[in-house]
Structure formats: C-alpha cells, structure tokens
Amino acid sequence: MLVTGAIGNAVLAVVVPVLTGDAFNAMLAPQPDTSVLLPLALTIGVSQVIRGVLQLGRNFGAELMAQKMERDIRDELYLSLLGKSMTFHNLQPVGDTMARATNDVREVNYMFSPGVNLVVGSFMFILMPLFFGPRYHPSLILTPLLFAVIYFAALAGYLKALSPVTDTARATFGQMNTHLSESLDGVEIMKGAAQEEAEVDRFVTNARKVRDAFVKQGDLEARYIAMLLLGLAFAGGLTHALFLLRAGLIDVGAVIGYFGMLQLLGFPTFTSTFAYSQISLGMSSARRILDLIQRETKLDQNASGLTSQIRGEIEFRNVSFRYPPPSPPIFGENGGRARGGYVLENISFKVKPGQTVALVGQTGAGKTTLVKLINRIYDATEGQVLVDGADVRDWNLAALRSQISIIEQDIFLFSRSLNDNIAFGKPGASKEEVVAASMAAQAHDFVLDFEDAYGTVVGERGVTLSGGQRQRIALARAFLTDPRILVLDDSTSAIDSATEDKIQRAIANASRGRTTFIITHRLSQIRWADLIIVLRKGRIAAIGSHDELMKTSEAYSRIFRE
Ligand code: GTP
Ligand code: MG
What we know:
By secondary structure, the chain is α/β, with parallel strands linked by helices. The protein has 20 helices and 10 strands. The protein folds into 2 domains: about 1-295, ABC transporter transmembrane region fold; about 315-325 and about 340-560, Rossmann fold (3-Layer(aba) Sandwich). Strand 7 (about 485-490), helix 17 and strand 8 (about 515-520) form a beta-alpha-beta unit. Helix 16 runs parallel beside helix 17 (about 495-510). It is elongated, with a radius of gyration of 36 Å.
C-alpha cells in the first residue's frame, strides 16, 4: 500500500511538467492550436485528483501501521516488564523505564509515520527524472544521475554521523526522566533537607544535556548538503537543457518539461533534512526498547510446575543467599574472600502447616531477605527452600505466589479506591466480601470515617493513610485472597497502644488456619509464636519456642529482660 501509493504519487506528479511542456509546444508552433489546451488541462486536473486520493491512502496506511505498531510495542514492553525479576527492577531506574515506555515508543511511531512514509514517497521522486528525463534527450540523464549518486553518498555519511547523536539524545532524555522521577519520589526528603536548590541545579544540568544533544542533532541537520545539491542540480540541468535547445536537439516544451521534472527533486531533498533524523531517532529508541525487553528475566515461570493447594509446610535446607551483583563481579582484593557478600548463611529450619513463626533480629540481620525467598522474589543462592516438601523452584510460579501473601515493610497502595486496593488480589470480589475482610482486619471503622468510605481514592484530594492504616488495608487484602502462607513484615512500625491492640487482634485473626511468618519487635507477638527464629548477621543465633529460648538462649532472654 505504502509503496504502491508512493509510485502512483510520483508518476502522476511527472504528468504536470510533461503536459505543461506539451502545451507550450502547441502554443509556440507556427500555427498555434488552442484546441489541445482543454484536454491537456483536464488531464492534468484529473491526474492530480487521483494523485490526491493515492496520497491520502498512502498517508492513512502509514499512520495506521505506525499507530498499531506503537500499541503493540507498548503491550509487549509492559508484559515483559511485569515478567522481570526483582533483581532487574531494583537495578533499572523507574524514570528511565517510563521514558522508554512512553517517549521511545512514540519515536518508533514517528519513525514510520512520517519517517519511513516520507522516505519511501520521496525516493520515488528521485527516480522520476532518471526515468523520464532521457525521454527528451538521452544525455539529459546526466544531472539526475549525478544528483542521485551524490545524494545517496551524502545520505550515507549523514546517517552514520546521525546515529550516535540520536543515541545520545534518547539516552540523555532517559537520564533526565530518571532524575525527575527520583526527586519526585523523594520530594519529602528533599524538602526536609532543604535541598531544593541543589536538586534544581542538578535537574538543570540534566536538562541542559538533553538540549545539547538535540542542538547537536540540529547542527548536523543544518550542515547536511542536500539543499546545496538541489540548487546545483537546477542550475546544471537547466544549462544543459538550454544548450541542447540551442543546438536544436530538443524543443522549448522539452526544456520546460525537463526543468519541471527536476523540480520533483525538491521533495526528497526537503524531506531528507528531517525524515532521516526521525528515522535515526526511531532506531535509537527501538534499540532502547529492545534492550529493555531482552534483558535477562532470571526467574522462570515454570508453567508446568506444581499447582496443587499448599498445605503450608515450609523448610529451609542449608540456605545461603546473597543479592545478585549488579555487574559481573570484579575479582580483586575482595574477590578472594570466600563468603563475601552473603546476607543469609546456612539457614535451616522447618515449619509445620498452620504454625506461626516469629522472626526477630536487629536491623539488617536479613529478616526481610529471608521471607523473600519463600515466594521466589529471589532464589536461594545455595541450598533449598521447600514448600510442602517440594523445592519452590518446582512449583508453578503463579500457583506458588497466589497462595503466599507478603505484607511488606512499607506498604504500597495504588492510586485507586480503598475498595479496589483491598480487592486487588481478588478482582470482582463482592462488596460484602470486601467489608467482611476489612472488618476482620480492623479497618472497617477508620474506612467509614472517610467521606466516601470504600470509594475513597488513595492520593486524591489529599487522602493519605498512616502506617497503621495501610497495614490494616494490607491485612484486609490478605483476608480476601485467603493465602495458605502469610508473611507480615512489621519490624519498623511504631504505633500507639490503642491501634496496636487492634492490629494485634487483626493479626491473630489473620494467622488462624494458615502458616504465618511475623517479623516483629513486639514482645507480645513473639511470645505466642510457635517457633521463634533469632537472626544475627544472616545466621540463626537461636531457634525454638518462647519457653525453650528463655531457658537456653542468653541473647533471647536478654530481649525480654530489658
Ligand atoms: P530491618 O528491616 O531493618 O529490620 O532489616 P532486615 O533484617 O529486614 O534486613 P534485610 O533483609 O532487609 O537486609 C539484610 C542485608 O541485605 C542488609 O545488609 C542490606 O543491606 C542487604 N540488602 C537488602 N535488600 C537488598 C537489595 O535489594 N540488594 C542488595 N544488594 N542488598 C540488599
Ligand atoms: Mg526488613
């Protein structure tokens, strides 16, 4: 469609100068014959109408293709991002990902329309004088041929120079976005530390880099010699045709027709100054998108793995773990250290279905890390984590994760209604179910205090939730999905005693009938756990029930004496 439209468009464009030349010939003849003028004019008119229709089809087709392409790329990118491991997401700045998912995808769209569309269309215009020029006199191929050769040579050089420049332009844009999203995320810290000015300076520096990159691109575009070439072609072609005229080899109509044809070269010349940089930008963007999609996913979904209902037995067998290094490890002074960088070392314990486990330990001991191995946010570096006697890697990832709920240390709420936030893990849950879950989580009362109750949108009109409220929303979420294993990372929350009491009750409700891990500093919660694991610097310092540990562990009993 694109190519047919382009050829039709170009051929019909040639009709104008050729027939104009014929008209001149008819008038300049010894006995001018005006009767040919009307048919000529009509032919020109009709041909241009057809050309308009073809052009419309070409542009429409190109635009349709480009928009579809943009949608498909975006879908694909989003899917691939959701499938990536946490290691990937921890290393890849959100701002840069956003830049790729929005602007880079858009650049690929522009690359096809107008980019490729104009290039294909204008390419045909270069061929026209080559084909039809010699019609008047064979030697008239000279100018269009020279033009084409120099045009393409210059273009090759231009594209080569352009590619690194557009790469930089896209990369600096990603960096600026990264900085923007990070400073918006951390705006509270920034204001708290009165660092606005320093941050603004940093942003201006980044913005300047983006500007510089685009100015460089504009500079290259300006130096591109195609316009000069066009002027030379006009001058050379006309001189050549006039010589032929004087020598009596061609007539006036041919000079006019030929010069009109040379005018067609204006279109490719003009478009080439911006269409190719559009294509180059699109290619740079496509590379950035592909780079993101193709980056290793690490965690495999294991679609054919176990999918049965989890009973809730958990076993850690000699598990050691370290966070994957961001880049290939550098072997140097630290390279020789045998167990360097391990966050968890040689962890072994076993939990029966339905038991409640309290994980205690100082900050940085590895508590959060340990629970992330259960639902495969990360995989153990050494040893095995088993659920119901099967290695977690043998479970179907979706089946495993859908039966394990982790309520994280800092609870994330989506900018949606409270109802949708609670029903997140079970879309389509009825109003009654949501309210029941919220009651069990002791969230119902404070939700009703909001003007719109369950319809209250988080983040809208200044609605924010306190730490304790967030926690109870997250608990309600867990009640609704009814996981077989519940993990509650509660180690940093400091809450007043009235709320504490409520949360206590909510957690007691939640832990009933399922295996529960609680990371906490609250002694009351530790006390009634079936199993207490004391972590110190990534190793198990003590393990057992409260009574056992009070007798055997000096470190543990010290916690209670203080
Ligand atoms: P608190 O939540 O403060 O009580 O600590 P925690 O016991 O939950 O510690 P956590 O498991 O979060 O961290 C244990 C160690 O792992 C610390 O030394 C962290 O610096 C390190 N760590 C935690 N998360 C990451 C991560 O995403 N990447 C890397 N490379 N290290 C991490
Ligand atoms: Mg933690």
